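Example record

One chain of 480 residues, shown exactly as stored in the release files.
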Amino acid sequence: MKNKKKKSKTTQIQPLKRAFHGASIGNLYSSWMLSQTSANSEIKNDLRTLRNRSRDLMQNDDYAKKFKRLIKSNVIGNHGIRLQNKAKDLNGDLDNKANDLIEEAFLQWSKVGNCDVSARYSFIDIQKEIIAAIASDGEVLVRKVRGYPNKWGFAIQLLEADHLDETYTDYDKNIIMGVEFDQWGKAIAYHILKTHPGDQGIRSVDTKRERIKADEILHLFIPYRISATRGIPWMHTAMTRLKMINGYEEAELTASRIAASKGGFFIQSANGDEYTGDYEEQGALIDEVTPGQYTLLPHGIDFKSYDPQHPTSNFKDFMKVVLRGISAGLDVSYNSLTNDLESVNYSSLRAGVLEEREVWTGLQTWICEHLLDDIFSNWLDMALLKGAINLPYSKKDKFNAPSWLPRSFAWVDPLKDMQANILAIQNGLKTYSKVASEMGMDLEELYAQIDKENELKKIYNINLATSTIKPSIQETNNEE
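Predicted structure tokens for this chain:
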């Protein structure tokens, strides 16, 4: 038998489907076609516009202004982030004498007229202005002036981001948007405009740049991408909604005011007799409305009411939806941004507050690491050199041991919080120092104050009854 040739089967190749829906193409995604660009390429073209729009919102929009105030009050607080130095001797004990001298000297330097070259700000003011500028502009420059003619030989200068010209790029010198880098991408110098570019009409503007070494400048910003050279305003995702809702609310308010008037129009029919009553100079009918009044219109005159229905019934819900999106973009809770506590119960308020406080405490840690540690190290170096602190310069490294105490936050339910701390201490899960630190206090200062008050009680023969909070916690239903 002859072998039959087997017919070869051709396999039809099926087109591959994308694994990620977010990478799909088609009519629904036609407007979502992006090119692969670096962070600096994106920032370079839009930074100035974003910064100016952000400032405009902070100046003219109520919600943006509230956001700025929330950042100042929650990250810095009324008393600022305070220094508690922790220099130790070789045996591991705190050098209390040296720490007290350093803390007292730093406190004096922090007063108005000492720490800032313009003599306008205290160090608490500077902390607030810095965090507000970073939120509004995306970045801020702090110049460290060593050898400044004051007692400590050190002061700082605040510079707005406009001084670092984003249009100045020289690839041959590895300068990108005013920042000069080495081969590893480390900033080695900043090219700073000598005067603010927006000072036209106020004073003569010097467009020349000054090259300042990087160790004299703190360029503070939180990069939105790893490769970002400059910072962008924190409101960049929310500013479109903020501007649109601002215009919508204004239009709705205007329409509501017109609706409250409920005016109308007089219409004269074509075959009617000519009205012989009173007219204004412009030819309009004169009419006044009083409560309970009925008016008989002349023959041939009809009245057509103008009754716009504003505000609309969905105005409130629409505003809530948009403001929730804005709150998400600003990393704050809707209730904090809008002061809207309607339909809020204990559980929902607690959840929102806790999540928001994680943002605040994270920013506190960031500003301690990127600003305060550096400023303190430079201040201490110059203060010891100038003899402003009666301590040996040779032990500078030992004395450079700052511990920062940011503002604390009261618990939604203070009694439960304190009871939980007592239980944690009694079971060895927390220390008194940790609890005091969470409350924004230093334990040693607290004990010293308690001791002083006890001595005062003895002097004035005062015996105050005290009660101890029991560690047992009763579960209560606080939800409304």
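Notes: Residues 346-386 form the longest helix (41 residues).
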